[in-house]
Amino acid sequence: MTDQDNNQISPEEYKKITESMYNQNLELARLYKQVDSLNHDLSLANQSQANLMHFMNHQIKGHFGNARNIFAELLTNDYGEIPEFAKPFLEKGLEETRMGVDYVQSILKGASAENGTLPYDMKQMDLKRVVEEVANKQKEFAEKKGLKFSLEIGDGTYNINGDEVQLGEAIKNLLDNSINYTINGEVKVSLINSNNSVQIKVEDTGIGIDPEDKDKLFKSGGRGKDSQKINVNSTGYGLVFVKGVVEAHKGRVWVESEGVNKGSTFFVELPKTS
User: Fold this and answer.
1) 183-202 as b/e, with b when 16 or more CB fall inside 10 Å?
2) pLDDT tens digits, residue range 45-93?
3) CB 208, CB 264: distance < 8 Å
């Protein structure tokens, strides 16, 4: 008998091996179907949960809006003179309901921008004008906090194809973010022109970003681990909205920071049009 004969597999052994491999493949196929089914169920559950949350947020926004209108109407004196002792309570109620509407609106718009359902009216626009308008409004907010605020705009044209309203809101969110998380120091906004793109840069001397938190910032509910100690009203959707809007304009957004307490720099880059 040769070595080749000794190494040959008998029909019985071959049958056992084949049956074993067949059974293993059947088990793999069963597990794959099970995992696929679980993924499908999870996707449906997540979608159902997302739909429920969206519905709830709309309902809450509606109730806040109704309360805001009631407080505002009472403060007009159309229903008689308001006692002086009652005015502070009504004014506080109006301010709180306004904040509630803004809070829920931020979540709704962030979620819509993230899932691609936010409507856009794309047309030729001057980004420089939008940045100037937003920066001028946010300068007052920054200076009330005792922060230095500056805007620098490079030479050239800043024509892009975009939605002025949504981009303006995204830029406002970026500036709000830097102002909210900067306790002292400054926020510096720069608009930079290049051959094929324009870049918005927002630098601050704020709390900085832990490297572990960078990936969370542009995701739903994403916040730095210590961020709510500074800004208790953060929804975690402001930068999600920014990312969704920028990407809908075929641009990109990113952040750089040397670490905690070392400030942050946010960048938005958008393609130019001729």
Assistant:
1) eeebbbbbbbbeeeebebbb
2) 555 555 545 555 555 656 666 666 766 776 777 766 767 777 776 677 7
3) yes
Q: What is the pLDDT of residue 83?
A: 75
The helix or strand, by DSSP H or E, that contains position 187, with its residue range, turns out to be strand 186-193
Q: What is the CA radius of gyration of the chain?
A: 28
The number of helix segments (H) and strand segments (E) in the chain equals 7, 7
Q: Which residues pair with 200 in a beta bridge?
A: 191, 268
Structure tokens at 202: 């927002």
Q: 108: closest CA among 69, 67, 56, 65?
A: 56
- Rounded CA separation 56/68 (Å): 18
Delineate the domains of the chain, giving CATH numbers in brackets.
1-117 (no CATH), 123-271 (3.30.565.10)
Query: Which residues are 125's β-sheet partners?
Result: 160
| Residue 80 CB-density burial (10 A; 0-12 exposed, 13-18 middle, 19+ buried) | exposed
CB count in 10 Å sphere of residue 102: 13
Structure tokens at 183: 């306790």
Q: What is the pLDDT of residues 234-272, one digit of tens each?
A: 556 788 889 999 999 999 999 999 998 999 999 999 999
pTM: 0.64
